[in-house]
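Spend some time on the protein that follows and explain the fold to me:
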Amino acid sequence: MNRRSLLLSAVLLFVLAACSPEKELLPATGSFSQAEPAPLPEDRFLTIAHRGASAYRPEHTLPAYILADEMGADYIELDLRMTKDGRLAVIHDQELQRITGGSGKVSDMSMDELKKVSAGVAFNEENPELAQASYEQLTIPELRDVLMRFGTSVNYYIELKDPPEGAGMEQAVISELEQYGITESSGQRQLPPVILQSFNKESLMRLHEMRPDIPLIQLYSFKENADLSSEELEQLRGYASGIGIPADSAHAGFIEKVKGRELDVHVFTVNEEQDIRRLIAIGADGVFTDRPDVSRRISLE
């Protein structure tokens, strides 16, 4: 065999080896983690302070989170939206009108611009019996503001709101949680230090790929009796630790079906004592509530 033939043979062998699936060294783009979803605590009904103790203080503000912690909430809930400059604002609505009385969208503003508007004026107007002049000086916090204030002294239940495709919101959230030591496991903790949730399945799957040790909750907005097929539940078990559903859609048969697949059920938003008792009776694992003092008291009975 001449030199040219040898060279061609070598090139051919190299190409065949490179194309062989058995020789693949890197995972394919979009590959999905095979790790089991992180477990949630058994036999523990969770009180999740919805936007803090938001029945009593302006939602998503440090005073609301401080009160929720004082009331014994198992988790403080944060909604996150990305600002124009890629920072993580703690706010539920895309539009500013309801919370601030102002106009504009979170995604069209920088974090510095958001911090110039009041997060407490609307609360004072709607709740004169709870109003305080100091609330007018409250501003929309950034995720790092909350993490710096509380550190590992509380547990966080965080929703990624409308995560923009390709904007890296998932990585930004994980990076900040890691920076402040929130994701570090500790044998002293009875509960996971952070739970992440979203209505966006793809976002949750990306989070599971990054940190399979963090429990994830798939949110649903059922308008009536909740229902998921066996196939849908089996899919969920690949990346989620549980689901979040509206209170009006929750019923015993569905909760039993979901928990039979080893998935937890958290229900939003529940403020009345009789409703919390009903959900405990039919097997719910926790509630999002504006009144964490009420839920906590009932859960300890």
Notes: Strands lie at 46-49, 75-82, 88-90, 156-160, 194-198, 216-219, 242-246, 264-268, 286-289. The first strand starts at residue 46 and ends at 49. Residues 3-19 form the longest helix (17 residues).
